[in-house]
Amino acid sequence: MLQEIQQVAQRVLQGERITFPEAERFIELESWPDVLELAAQATRIRQRFTGDDVDLCALVNAKAGQCSEDCTFCSQSARWNTGISTYPLMDPDQIVARAMAAKRFGAKRFCIVTATRGLSDRDLPTLCEAVRRVKEEAGIVPECSLGFITEEQLRALKEAGLSRYNHNLETAESHFPNICTAHTYQDRLGTLRMLRAHGVEICSGGILGLGESRRERLELAFALAELEVECAPINVLNPRPGTPLGSAAPPEPKEVIKTIATFRFILPRSRLELGGGREVNLRDFQAMAFLAGANSLIIGGYLTTHGRQPAHDLQMLKDLGFTV
Ligand code: SF4
Fold first, then answer.
1. 216-255: per-residue pLDDT in tens?
2. Which ligand 1 atom is the nearest neighbour of the CA of 115?
3. CATH superfamily of 56-319
4. Which residues have a Cβ under 8 Å from the Cβ of 213 and sit 6 or more positions away?
5. Residue 110 and residue 121: Cα distance in Å, rounded?
């Protein structure tokens, strides 16, 4: 197996693509020596294509809860009784203050997130002002994650200074109906294609641990490769009380590490961003994710859960040899 991993890595380093059957063999690996070799080769691929630079992204939950959609993992859906605090859209001053704080603790990017099916025209001016001021006043790269948007809304956000938009595919197309019925995978894909058509960078990934098979994880990765996403966030389910997945069992650290390494083979040039659920699921293996191909990190907490102190993350990345 070690030889096969090295041979496939060599081909990827030369610009070829890994095949689905090869990726399937990798994601089925069970022994630590095999997984460590996979991680080592994923690190070579990461270094070749993206160097030792790491992206640090912070989020603000600018509008929390009461979402109309029924995503089974999400504590912000109005359909589940999760007891989270909900609030309407923040004003630009509040968003900019959060962006400034994020810059102080080391973030390079700042993503404005709203818990909505899609962006309303009523909220558009506030968000455009927030994007413009995050860029100009806070001096940090603004991103948005506002659900479905129209071409006109996207044009307005772009004009305000937006260059990257987050819209996760969440999981494989074949598994999507099991985690959401209020909208479809194709709806999401349509938004991503529109972003590409408008020259906006794509941040799109998913969540491990939604009941998907290993094969379905690969389906997601290959779909992201086809879209040539600039950044692929990889979250690991942190089961939220009150949601349908509230008592699901998330994958073990070795499974997550192996999946990240395999994703690096499939997405050699993309940022692989370690996102929500890393602290509770990876525990002492968080650094290992960066020795398996990850090269981006969400720092400073998530939408409805806290993360660890940014200083710990910065020290970890420095110790790993990344340029912070
Ligand atoms: S659309 Fe987003 S905010 Fe709404 S339920 Fe789904 S994941 Fe949560």
1. 999 999 999 999 999 999 999 999 999 999 999 999 999 9
2. 3
3. Aldolase class I (3.20.20.70)
4. 175
5. 22
